[in-house]
Amino acid sequence: xxxxxxxxxxxxxxxxxxxxxxxxxxxxxxxxxxxxxxxxxxxxxxxxxxxxxxxxxxxxxxxxxxxxxxxxxxxxxxxxxxxxxxxxxxxxxxxxxxxxxxxxxxxxxxxxxxxxxxxxxxxxxxxxxxxxxxxxxxxxxxxxxxxxxxxxxxxx
Length: 156
Prior knowledge:
- Helix 3 (51-60) runs parallel beside helix 5.
- This protein has 156 residues and is mainly alpha-helical.
- It is built from 9 helices and no strands.
C-alpha cells in the first residue's frame, strides 16, 4: 500500500491488526470488528476532516452503517464510489448500480478502467452470497485503489 507518510502512520495500527490480505473477507453482510481501533485511528490529525478516508476505513472493518452515514454526505464521485461499494456489500445491487453510475466520472476509473465497479456488482450478485476468492481479491483491490487515490487526492 502506497500512502502519504502521515496517513500511513495514522493507519498503521489498523493495518497491522488487519492486513489488507485479511480485510473484507466477505462479499456481503456487515460483520463489524476493530471498531474501537478505527475510532482511535480517526482521531489522528492526518485523518481529521477526511470523510473520504473515514468511509473507506469503516468499510475496511465491515461497518457498513458507519460508512453509509459518511459517504451519503459526500456529494462527489468519490462519495458515490464509496456509497456504491457499501450498497454492493449490503446486497442492495440496484442501489449499488445507481451509485456506481454516479461514480463513473471518478478520475480513478480513468486511471484504472480495469476496476469495472459495475461489473463487480453483477458478479457479486451472481455469486449469490458465496465468497468466491477471485471476487474477494477484486473487492480488496478496488478498496485499496480507491483508498490510495483518496489519500493522495485530498477533498477540495
